[in-house]
Amino acid sequence: MSKEITSRAADYSQWYNDLVIKGELADHSAVRGCMVIRPYGFALWENMRDALDKMFKDTGHVNAYFPLFIPKSFLSKEAAHVEGFAKECAVVTHYRLMNDPNGGGVIVDPDAKLEEELIIRPTSETIIWNTYKDWVQSYRDLPLLINQWANVVRWEMRTRLFLRTAEFLWQEGHTAHATREEAIEETEKCLVFTPLSWKTLWHCL
Known about the structure:
6 helices, BirA Bifunctional Protein, domain 2, alpha+beta, 10 strands, 3-stranded mixed beta sheet, 205 residues, 3-stranded antiparallel beta sheet
């Protein structure tokens, strides 16, 4: 196999791609910019995820899951936050397909346009905090120590297996606290975990 792998000195980028493909960690998929994570590659993810998940749970955090789809109006309220990846958002505009009357397979049903477009999550802050406002009625409901394991989509133009793909796996933590001091303490505690994490976000209510 070594003869089939490009020399790192000759072409570092190709060397990396060769290792991922020939090591059966991942493959390119039929969807441009997305990858298929093969069993060896997914085992690496599982090992990292499980170690980090235990660290979170040992400090009182629990896992939850929030929708993949985010109403566009939610992101509009956080325009400044979203600006950095607005050009990478995938947008759902219709909810149904139909057979092409001209025999061209299936097409988008023009009568099935959504009243409000849905964004495939590039990150989950807006939909998580929209939920928290219903969960938190007083200080007695705090703290909230929630972690989410999920996939997100950012429509990357230049992709590289594992390093930058249109869809990728990550975790994001969102905590709510009664006082600024508690929020700062939580942030400092969880900063220890971030080197192992795809991304971690900690917020104060």
